Amino acid sequence: MPGRKLDAIDRMILAELQADGRITNVELARRVGISAPPCLRRVRTLEEQGYIRGYHADIDPRQLGLEVQVFAMVRLVSQAEADLSAFEALCIGWPLVRECHMLNGEVDFILKCVSPDLRTFQTFLTDQLTAAPNVANVKTSLVIRGAKDEPGVPFDVVEARLARQA
């Protein structure tokens, strides 16, 4: 594990916060079996060490009129580090791109995009994404429906792995 070794209470804190980021410190402390002041210290330490990257609300894009979700597989002409970084910087600046992941294999990047409609996405695709420097080609797949969208990490898998190592 990167960073300091987490104990069972730290892992319980992370699991509880992942499930409910709005939980009060008093309730969190109760659930993990410690008092509130050391619980708050642990949470702050987990934040400072980068285990907790932030807190956010899980917004339903469709409720805001973002009806279209597309995965775009992007292949670049050059995979030199400067070119990869330049493409990542472009992705960071594109509001429709919600996730950008560099991959190993035939595709260099996969982008998760949201859009209010197909016309808006098509405009983004033709005017920005495929026109971007170093882009060789883009293949897109429109999401029909989602079967699972579970953020975070599987703490049951983490715990099972640690139990096997003990």
What does this structure look like?
This protein has 166 residues and is of the alpha+beta class. It folds into two domains: 1-58, Arc Repressor Mutant, subunit A; 61-142, Lrp/AsnC effector binding domain/regulation of amino acid metabolism (RAM) domain (Alpha-Beta Plaits). Helix content is 42%, strand content 18%. Strands 2-3-1-4 form a four-stranded antiparallel beta sheet. β2 (97-102) and β3 form a beta hairpin. α2 crosses α3. The mean pLDDT is 95.
Describe the structure using short key phrases:
Arc Repressor Mutant, subunit A, Alpha-Beta Plaits, 4-stranded antiparallel sheet
Which CATH first-tier class of the largest domain would you pick? Alpha Beta
Principal-axis shape: elongated
- Fraction of residues in H or I helices: 40-55%
Q: Count the domains.
A: 2
Give a brief outline of the structure:
This protein is 42% helix and 18% strand. It has two domains: 1-58, Winged helix-like DNA-binding domain superfamily/Winged helix DNA-binding domain (Arc Repressor Mutant, subunit A, Orthogonal Bundle); 61-142, Alpha-Beta Plaits (2-Layer Sandwich). The protein has helices at 8-19, 25-32, 36-48, 81-93, 118-129, 155-165; strands spanning 68-76, 97-102, 109-115, 135-142.
Topology:
Blueprint: H1 8-19, H2 25-32, H3 36-48, E1 68-76, H4 81-93, E2 97-102, E3 109-115, H5 118-129, E4 135-142, H6 155-165
Antiparallel strand pairs: 1-3, 1-4, 2-3
